[in-house]
Amino acid sequence: MDYGDYPSAGMSAGIIIVYLAIAILMIAAMWKIFTKAGKPGWAAIIPIYNAIVLLEIVDKPLWWIILMLIPLVNVIISIIVSVELAKKFGQSVGFAIGLILLAPIFYPILGFGGYRYTG
Fold it and tell me: What Cα–Cα distance (Å) separates residue 80 from each residue in 47, 67, 85?
């Protein structure tokens, strides 16, 4: 069997590789953000716990984790958390908009850049 018969297989593999690269970049960026905020970096790889740690970093109540599980409400909560995260690192609402709309670019900037946690 020749893979030329299935051109979408190569494209699917390429998409998976790009997705994994972005996921690894985001995990590394969150790890650095958590470390800068004095939290354990490994928390970035634990699914629900990373949201709890993020809420702690932005000084929001832990019961907001429930709001993050409700469709449409989670979008509003994520926006609020992004704005607060930008503020905790001394950034403006413009940077928060970048965190919201261009997360794979702005989270690594926040994590690997010279920004300091001011919480």
Answer: 19, 12, 9
Rounded to two decimals, the pTM is 0.85
Give the domain extent around 94.
3-112
For 117, which DSSP code?
-
**Separation CA 64–CA 68 (nearest Å):** 6
For the chain, the domain total comes to 1
Q: Cβ(47)–Cβ(37) under 8 Å?
A: no
pLDDT tens track for 80-116:
999 999 999 999 999 999 999 999 999 999 999 989 9
